[in-house]
Fold:
Amino acid sequence: MFRRAVSLVAFCFVALSATLILQLVWSGILTTNLKLSPGIPWSVAVMGLLLWTIWRYFGGAWWPASTRQARRRYRRAEPVPARTFASATAAGLLALGALIALWLVIGQVVKVPGNRSADFANYSPVTVVSVIAMASLVGAVTEELGLRGYMLTRLEAQVSGWGAVVIVALVVAPGHGMTQGFAMPTLLWYFVVDVMLGSLALLTGSILPGILVHLVGLLAFFSIIWPTDRYRHPASLGQQGQAFWIEVLACIALATLSFLVFRHLASATPSSRGYSIKVARDIPTESGTGG
Structure:
């Protein structure tokens, strides 16, 4: 049991580290691009090729053949039936709308560090649009692949599905704190985000719906929400304007609708326990044999 526990912790650490490293690689490529030739966004093409290579390899392509099946299972990107995909996307986007409204509400009630947005004032529209699109794609693909793909799949083979979702959300919390600040409202907000995305992967058995929802969310935050954070200032409850209460009502309404769609999705898809058993059978254990 001790060896299995150590192996599980090491696996999760590597998956989290790889996710962060890939994002740092993108930051380094982008920084170099903006310093040397800001008018030509070649970093987008370079990262696009690298991202495609990572997606293919960690999905079972190429050498070594002995790990192809395990890599494909860990990636957790099997096609989802159209109806299930639509329900999962609807649930995720409704939850995303509620979370955006909640972010706006939090910024007007308490002071949070926020996310310092990049200054694109001196760059061409082509560079700005392409960089924001690629940054959103990198964030969505690497985090879903590493966290809700590899890490969640490994954890789900050892603990209950919902327990695995919560563990992943807790494990990645320090990473959010390093970039967003260790303010409790911010950490709790990201915890809810990670649980929501983990729920999509758990209920559908695939990270594909989560990638789409995650991508839309990052596009919204990179282009609209984070650049306008500086205009929101905390005040005592009751001193906010009418827009604040509209955002509160929108958060409640969207969260309620999302919950209903998630409940429908949970009742219409196979149980997570069935996927856990399948993962445990198909993924090799430390000794190299089937689980």
In short: The chain is about 75% helix and 0% strand.
